[in-house]
Amino acid sequence: MATTQPVVKFTYEDYRTAPADKRYELLGGDLIMVPAPNLRHQEVQFRLSQELGRFILDHELGKLFYAPCDVVLSDTDVVQPDLLFVSQGREHLLSGGENVRGAPDLVVEILSPATADRDRGYKRELYGKHGVTEYWLVDPIAETVSLHRQHGGVLAVIHTFGREQTLRSPLLAGLELHLDDIFSS
User: Fold this and answer.
1) Predicted confidence (pLDDT) at residue 18 exceeds the cutoff of 90
2) In sequence order, what are the residues at sequence separation of 6 or more whose Cβ sits closer than 8 angstroms to the Cβ of residue 161?
3) In terms of DSSP bridges, do strands 177-178 and 166-167 run parallel, antiparallel, or are they unpaired?
4) Residue 44 within any structural domain of the chain
5) In the prediction, which pLDDT does 3 show?
6) What CA–CA distance (Å, rounded) separates 13 from 7?
7) Does some domain include residue 28?
8) How far apart are the first and last CA of the chain?
9) Which residues, 6 or more positions from 152, have their beta carbon under 8 angstroms from its beta carbon?
10) Half-sphere exposure of 78 toward its Cβ, with a 13 Å CA cutoff?
11) Would you say 132 and 160 are in contact if contact means Cβ atoms under 8 Å apart?
């Protein structure tokens, strides 16, 4: 007679004891090691963080963080988005000083070969379910940014911007990101 082995699911407390020399995310209780991103990813992340950071500071909108920064969505879901924004009105999510406790207003994921399917699928659904207002999927190869907005627990694409276009965000009124600047080599 065959017996089934119980599936081990990790919690936030387990996650906190993972080796510090590696980068992990906790998705549905599964501990996932996340490889370091490639250089193109890093360039795009740097440019985006500069532009977003300047806009957020100039307009005193809240705080911008970048990976690695833990976002604790539940006891079994801890993510490290490439970039995330928490508005002034939701800064209570930062009250512990160690991580973000709840859904940021904006999450930006920059696609990498190792993470693209997860970012487009599982994580988009997870962010929607937990109430992220806006989700940007940045594709450094196609040089596009797909902007998703919250609608009833689902993040739906409202527009995909490409090179030579200017990204405007409903969440960050007045922001104009010239994608030629973001994707320049």
Assistant:
1) no
2) 144, 145, 146, 147, 167, 179
3) antiparallel
4) yes
5) 62
6) 17
7) no
8) 61
9) none
10) 29
11) no
pLDDT at 84: 98
Structural domain total, the chain: 1
Q: Please report how many Cα atoms fall inside a 13 Å half-sphere around the Cα of residue 160, on the Cβ side.
A: 9
With cut-offs at 50, 70 and 90, classify the pLDDT of residue 162: very high
Structure tokens at 36: 């370091």
* CA–CA distance, 2 with 101 (Å, rounded to integer): 42
Is residue 7 domain-resident? no
Stretch (H or E) spanning 30 = strand 30-33
185 vs 180: CA distance, rounded Å: 9
Q: What is the CATH classification number for the domain harbouring 139?
A: 3.90.1570.10
* 24 domain residue, yes or no: no
Task: Quote the CA–CA distance of 22 and 161 in Å, as a whole number.
Answer: 33
What's the rounded Cα separation, in Å, for the pair 176 and 1? 64
Separation between Cα atoms, residue 32 and residue 25, nearest integer Å: 5
Q: Which domain holds residue 157?
A: 38-183
| Structural tokens at position 173 | 């009124």
